[in-house]
From TrEMBL:
GO biological process, one term: translation
Stretch list, region Disordered: 74-141
Classification via Pfam families: S1
Protein name stated in the entry: S1 RNA binding domain protein
């Protein structure tokens, strides 16, 4: 049986290290679930999540030329679409529609708005720095 990237398999944990867990796949091959692929939350110790001989579902995320198999537990889990994802998509659509409205302005209109805003900012900056220096052009000798 050939291991394909993206396939979900059941496997048995055969060993645990500080950097992850080794899992024996149904084909008899062994793959590694890196510590970063165990859970969505921060994993400080693999032993808090897995024990030897646990049966887990993993997803194949890569197969190296030298035979190393990369596995993921968190990508094997089905995640429902959350409400926050829906809200973010609506906010993105709103931002795009606002950008389209502003794009209806001509280049000359955009340029004049930019120049006006730039002049206002420069004059405010000059006012603030001049008062701190003790007047315009004053130098300490």
């Amino acid at each position: 049986m050939s291991i394909e990237i993206g396939s979900k398999l059941e496997g048995k944990v055969t060993g645990i290290t500080h950097f992850g867990a080794f899992v024996e796949l149904p084909s008899g091959e062994t793959g590694l679930v890196h510590i970063s692929e165990i859970a969505d939350s921060y994993v400080k110790d693999v032993n808090e999540f897995l024990k030897v001989n646990d049966i887990i579902t993993v997803k194949v995320i890569n197969v190296e030329k030298d035979g190393k198999i990369g596995l993921s537990m968190k990508k094997a889990q089905e995640k429902p679409v959350s409400q926050t994802t829906v809200v973010k998509e609506k906010q993105t659509k709103t931002a795009r529609s606002q950008a389209r409205r502003h794009s209806n302005e001509s280049f000359d209109e955009k340029l004049s708005k930019f120049l006006k805003d730039s002049e206002e900012r420069l004059s405010n900056l000059r006012k603030n720095t001049d008062s701190k220096r003790g007047g315009r052009g004053a130098r300490r000798g």
